[in-house]
Design a protein that fits this description.
about 170 residues, single chain, mainly alpha
């Protein structure tokens, strides 16, 4: 179990450090998801609204990630190549889930044993923080895939499915 988590973490970190992410895919002015949600999140007047907006932010990155996976897979005809892409995607999904759990630990009562009692007195910002941590992993994985697609596709530059303001 620990070995698998370490492998996932090392794989993700390797991809982050070894992937040259260009401005074409990652410039915050071009990235429609952050362009939409950065303002919404900074203007959220209360915790409930921040949680709702962060949930939508997470869903936007998850959807974009799945679209990017399909776009990259569409460029390959051999099953082994598609399995490699599927493995990348499943590793990042697992890492995103772990990022959520790790963020939750920051909000937990470290004096209590792990279990439901540990999270009884969680702060009101925990929900948004855990979703944001998960979303940031999906974002990084997506930007990596977009860069890969842009460098290896005969098609035009990757087009986001998320439209600014939606």
């Amino acid at each position: 179990m620990i070995k698998n988590a370490v492998i996932i973490l090392l794989t993700a970190l390797s991809l982050i450090f070894l992937t040259d992410i260009s401005k074409a895919c990652c410039d915050e002015n071009i990235n429609p998801i952050n362009k939409t949600f950065d303002v919404l999140l900074s203007d959220a007047p209360n915790t409930a609204e921040r949680n709702e907006i962060t949930q939508k932010y997470l869903e936007a990155w998850k959807n974009e990630f799945e679209n990017a996976v399909m776009q990259v897979k569409g460029g390959y005809k051999f099953g082994e190549d598609k399995k490699t892409i599927d493995k990348y995607a499943s590793d990042y999904r697992a890492l995103a889930k772990k990022a959520n759990e790790m963020e939750l630990l920051k909000w937990s009562d470290t004096e209590s044993k792990p279990g439901k009692d540990r999270y009884g007195s969680i702060g009101s910002g925990a929900q948004a923080a855990t979703m944001r941590a998960e979303a940031e992993i999906y974002k990084q994985a997506t930007l990596n895939l977009i860069q890969f697609y842009n460098n290896n596709s005969n098609e035009s530059i990757y087009k986001y499915i998320h439209k600014t303001g939606k």
